[in-house]
């Protein structure tokens, strides 16, 4: 047998092997396509399901509020519905900080919401979170929480009011005083009431400086008489006035 004849035999064998490999690959691709097609058909014909709510991190009123928000969408098939519309409906609830809407192979369309965490009451109907966002809690019983500071003023100035509360608490902490109630009036006058009943009134002129100086003076000269003070008025260009409690 000549060398040329041997080479031709090897080439023929390689061609047959290559042909079988292509046939096997095509069969595999065909099977994958068929399986995928039938799977999509099955999912597409799957019965509609109610939107699933992940409620493990929610209170009962929050869960009920969320269910009411998505109720108009009714039941939906796996690939049905507009997730963006559902998300917009959920995030429109003022107590919701973040929301996620996704498709889950087992539970269908799933909604998860993260509630805002209040750090203070804001007026008598709302609350405010650490980002300065004013919101209405899902449970009306949460408003006017006695364990939280109460802030008053325009919602458009909520962030400034919250930061003022934090600043006052920081400045007066050495005296053991914490804000219990803080008001920003329409005339930009600050009225601060501490937990011991002491009331401080200050205008919008050099407010930060006046509060800082007051905290220093009280700490240096009146620390032992703090509880004898009824109010301090800082609405003077130079100095301030103190009203003392009447001792019985």
Automatic annotation (TrEMBL):
One Pfam family named in its UniProt record: POTRA_1
Alphabetical GO biological process terms: cell septum assembly
Domain Cell division protein FtsQ/DivIB C-terminal: 123-235
Organism: Moraxella equi
Keywords (A to Z) from UniProt: Cell cycle, Cell division, Cell inner membrane, Cell membrane, Membrane, Transmembrane, Transmembrane helix
Domain POTRA per the UniProt entry, residue ranges: 49-112
PANTHER family: CELL DIVISION PROTEIN FTSQ
Identification of the protein by name: Cell division protein FtsQ
Matches recorded under InterPro entries: Cell_div_FtsQ/DivIB_C, FtsQ, FtsQ_C_sf, POTRA_FtsQ_type
Transmembrane regions listed in the UniProt entry: 22-40
